[in-house]
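User: Sequence recovery, please. Input:
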């Protein structure tokens, strides 16, 4: 028995040596393995990018619907839009823009099989921006989408769904500051004289153009005007962005145009189908319903083409013309800000760069060394 046990011990000893030798080898391997795994994150990001591009290329063949978003994303998207509408008092136009921008992001993120907000990483948002760049989106479009997503993720943080906003370290792309397009005073005069105010629609169009130029209001503010928005002493109550109220004066020509339109407004109400007339709305379409922003744009386009203006402008161009002409006539910048309903003065300051002629005239009149020295005989 002693011989057997001694032989077994001898046979076991070499096994221990082998195990020790394997342990020694195992100690050497971690450095080699670490060096091999170092470039792995770059490969995973690249693979993810390729996967995303492929998924988005197949989007037309297999369109992503809201059912693909999953219950979690749909729940928080609906909660966010309710919050923006009820608490922040955002306009319907803003809510539609937020819905479109968040939906575009969810279509991208669901293609990566990410069905929960906690799984969103900064690299996913950078990939989303890269896809938008490849589609030749303007910097203004990218900034608008980023603004919507920032608000969305801030809301998720307030609801304690996220601990950190994945957009915190992503900067907005630089946007070129284009100068506002506006009409000269002579062009404005031809534009305001273009409608035929002998008809109900012509009188309406004349009142719209006069009111645009007299108040500088936005097209969304104009179409939301009701009969009780006008004050008898020549003012209008306007609800701007986020339902912020402001009072703006209306000039004499605009008031006369509105009075003339009101005398013919009943013809438009009479053409409405039963129960479809918008009795409370100030501006009506040919069917007696409330005029839409798209219809107002068509009205402005029509008369801009008829008067052969030097540049094609939108209703917002009349707002720019209003502010530019006030500034040229010496109006205070702060007062223009109040009339336009701008939250920041920097938004109004861009009108100071529009007219070089008036800028040079102000410089020549104010600077003591700008006056020409008369020639001595």
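Assistant: Recovered sequence (377 residues):
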């Amino acid at each position: 028995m002693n011989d057997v046990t001694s032989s077994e011990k001898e046979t076991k000893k070499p096994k221990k040596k082998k195990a020790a030798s394997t342990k020694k080898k195992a100690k050497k391997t971690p450095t080699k393995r670490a060096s091999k795994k170092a470039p792995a994150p770059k490969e995973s990001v690249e693979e993810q990018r390729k996967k995303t591009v492929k998924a988005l290329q197949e989007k037309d063949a297999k369109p992503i619907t809201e059912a693909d978003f999953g219950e979690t994303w749909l729940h928080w998207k609906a909660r966010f839009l309710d919050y923006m509408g009820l608490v922040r008092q955002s306009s319907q136009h803003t809510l539609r823009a937020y819905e479109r921008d968040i939906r575009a992001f969810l279509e991208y993120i669901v293609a990566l099989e990410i069905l929960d907000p906690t799984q969103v990483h900064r690299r996913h948002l950078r990939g989303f921006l890269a896809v938008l760049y490849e589609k030749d989106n303007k910097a203004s479009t990218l900034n608008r989408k980023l603004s919507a997503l920032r608000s969305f993720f801030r809301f998720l943080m307030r609801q304690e769904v996220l601990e950190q906003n994945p957009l915190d370290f992503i900067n907005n792309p630089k946007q070129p500051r284009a100068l506002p397009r506006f009409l000269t005073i002579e062009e404005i005069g031809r534009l305001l004289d273009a409608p035929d105010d002998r008809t109900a629609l012509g009188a309406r169009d004349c009142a719209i153009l006069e009111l645009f130029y007299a108040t500088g209001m936005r097209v969304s503010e104009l179409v939301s005007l009701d009969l009780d928005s006008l004050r008898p002493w020549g003012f209008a109550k306007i609800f701007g962005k986020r339902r912020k109220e402001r009072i703006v004066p209306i000039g004499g020509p605009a008031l006369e145009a509105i009075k003339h339109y009101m005398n013919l407004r009943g013809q438009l109400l009479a053409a409405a189908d039963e129960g479809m007339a918008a009795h409370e709305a100030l501006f009506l379409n040919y069917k007696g319903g409330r005029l839409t922003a798209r219809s107002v744009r068509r009205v402005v386009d029509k008369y801009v083409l008829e008067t052969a203006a030097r540049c094609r402008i939108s209703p917002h161009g009349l707002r720019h013309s209003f502010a530019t002409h006030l500034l040229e006539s010496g109006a205070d910048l702060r007062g223009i800000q109040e009339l336009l309903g701008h939250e920041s003065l920097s938004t109004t300051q861009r009108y100071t760069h529009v007219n070089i002629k008036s800028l040079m005239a102000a410089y020549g009149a104010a600077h003591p060394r700008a006056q020409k020295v008369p020639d001595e005989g």
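The chain has 15 helices and three strands.
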